[in-house]
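In this supplementary section we document a worked example of the pipeline. Step one takes a protein sequence of length 296 as its only input; no multiple sequence alignment statistics are reported here. Step two produces a three-dimensional model, which step three serialises into structure tokens for compact storage. The input and output of this example are shown verbatim.
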Amino acid sequence: MPTVIIVYCVFVAAASLAGGELPSLIRLTHARMQVFVSLVAGLMLGVGLFHMLPHAAAEVNSLDHVMSWVMGGLLTTFFLIRAFHFHQHGPAESDQVESSIHDHDHDRGHNHAGISATQPSSPHRLSWVGMGLGLSIHTLLDGTAMAASVQADSHLAADSWWLGLGTFLAVLLHKPLDAMSITSLMAIGGWSKGSRQAINVAYSLLCPLGAALFWFGAKWLGGQSQTFVGCALAFSAGVFLCISLSDLLPEVQFHSHDRLKLSAALLLGIVAAWGLRYLEPAHAHQRSGIRAETRD
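The serialised model returned by step three reads:
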């Protein structure tokens, strides 16, 4: 694999490890967590729209084909969340469980206080296994997105150190939140610190694994790798859109507190994603015209 992907994987793995240890080191306030979640969600939304979609369209050169893969990524992520209820952010504490359910009963299945409103109230019945399985699949897809972004940008400027920068930053900032969710639920379930650390280490390696599998898969395809990269980017854009909006809608729309602060964090993330394109190689949709398929 190219050096830039290896460097990105090292940083993402370190971020996951750090996120898993955060609940035992510091106490994060609800307000600060919501602001950070909104910021990262805005960044992911911007990266999906400003970076992944244009690059995917340039690789595949068919907008209809790209949008089909975007829908596939969005629906896949949606059903993963529905099946595993894995996308919950924030350190979960046993004394927060009951209050979280009463305070956020509008948010069915997606609660950033740390506990899903659809989960049973007893912390001993909360399962980190389902969350871990869902997040593991999600993390493998994040690794795929990162490697696909790097490979797409390398078609424009192979010697650049800013390849796939937007996707990397979105994954880097999002990964600690996911790792924190797993270790927090394990702590509530009474798992030892050693067990939590072992799971955290295993989880931190999944994103690099996803990147490696994609990279070697693209190399194996040879001449068809450009289409493969474009489809993977479009699918990843759908994943990012679903994840970002599942973060944003409960926080900005349903919460009555801190709306201005959360909205400002959202806009800051989007502006950051837009600005990052000036650090990456020339924008992908400038490479060639995009073909839209038509049917009689």
